[in-house]
Amino acid sequence: MSVLEGLLNERSVMPGRYKEQSETELMTLIKQIKKEMGPRLYLPGHHYQKDEVIQFADDTGDSLKLAQLSAENKQADYIVFCGVHFMAETADILTTERQQVILPDMRAGCSMADMADEKQTRVAWEKLTDLYGETIIPLTYVNSTAAIKAFVGKHGGACVTSSNAKEIVSWALKEKKRILFLPDQHLGRNTAYDLGIPLEQMRIWNPITHELEGEATEDVKVLLWKGHCSVHENFRMEHIRMLREEEPDRAILVHPECTWEVVQGSDFAGSTSYIINMIKNAPMGSKWAIGTEMNLVKRLIKDNPHLDIVSVNPYMCPCLTMNRIDLPHLAWSLENIANNHSNNIIQVSDIIKKDAKIALNRMLELV
Ligand code: 13P
Ligand code: SF4
User: How far apart are CA 100 and CA 200, in angstroms?
Assistant: First the structure.
């Protein structure tokens, strides 16, 4: 079920009474259902989820870890995914027929994933293969719809996450001369640059005008889909300059969904897990400015009082779609499951599932 189909279903609207219950009542209800259902219920939680939700997660992780954990879990009947829609779709693709994947709020989409649709991708592929023949392999960040993953799987490509992008891009460039990287231009550019590919050998594909930005020269190796994360794009060079000027001893650590300029201006860049590990191993009293989603940054600040941590952008907000998952929606989903009346079930069609699984499994086998 797509985000839109989900929203058109009247059962995806939570009854008002859950909003009227106190935090304590909701927490008691969630605890009780979790206890009653035991391992039949599994709650994976992405690191960008709010604390009120993450406290109930059976496992937390970045998108790679959550994809791996979903593939491994054969025990749970119900997987209530505390994350966004594309993550729940991935879980549905990687779990068995018998297991039900549920997203507590169907409005928890991802603006980046919505920046590439199937029709745009088909047009891009036709035009780019006209220009470059059979020399392109498609890769998609897992932050994409199941339909895009299926397209990529069908055309010999693989998925990537921010933790394994380097390995997968290296693999892809051994398979074919060029890659088409969807939908995040920044992760694609930062990864390829890290692997030694100069910016001059990269071009942007504009899915709105259906055109390549710049000349289609023979030396081009990386075709970057013009998409971005609306959260990570809020870390800008002005923030980096200000930090460098005011506190030159504060280390800057950002996610590769930030722009190339911001990544180049930082001291360290890496996936959500990389950021967490850097902070875990940071020396006592060290000073950090972190450029990633705010629920995670706030948690790192709270859990590490021996460090001095700030956000790269002092006015940063959390990811609004990740934040759709809250205590009332979690309690509502669990109560529906307990009453054998699950709602917001994420079900990828068999035809899409088959090809999307190829792209996901290629990634999981390579890392
Ligand atoms: P990772 O979990 O791969 O670091 O991705 C970050 C993100 O934006 C998830 O939506
Ligand atoms: Fe999408 Fe960015 Fe939010 Fe991740 S942080 S879910 S990529 S909008």
Answer: 46
Strand stretches in the chain, DSSP E: 41-42, 44-46, 59-61, 78-80, 100-102, 136-141, 158-160, 178-182, 202-206, 211-213, 222-225, 251-254, 268-269, 287-291, 308-311
Q: Is 199 found in the same domain as 153? A: yes
- For β-strands 202-206 and 211-213, DSSP reports them as antiparallel
| Cβ atoms of residues 50 and 318 within 8 Å | yes
| 293 neighbors 322 (Cβ within 8 angstroms) | yes
Ligand 2 pocket check for 321: Cβ under 6 Å: yes
Which residues, at least 6 apart from 17, have a Cβ–Cβ distance to it below 8 Å? none
Q: Domain range spanning residue 52?
A: 3-111+322-350
The Cα–Cα gap between 92 and 90 comes to 5
Q: Check whether residue 223 and residue 284 sit in a common domain.
A: no
Residue 271 in contact with ligand 1 by CB distance below 6 A: yes
Hey, what are 97's tokens?
């027929």
Give the tens place of pLDDT for each residue, 200-257: 999 999 999 999 999 999 999 999 999 999 999 999 999 999 999 999 999 999 999 9
Strand order in the sheet with 251-254: 268-269, 251-254, 287-291, 308-311
Distance 271 CA to ligand 1 centre (A): 7
Stated pTM of the model: 0.95
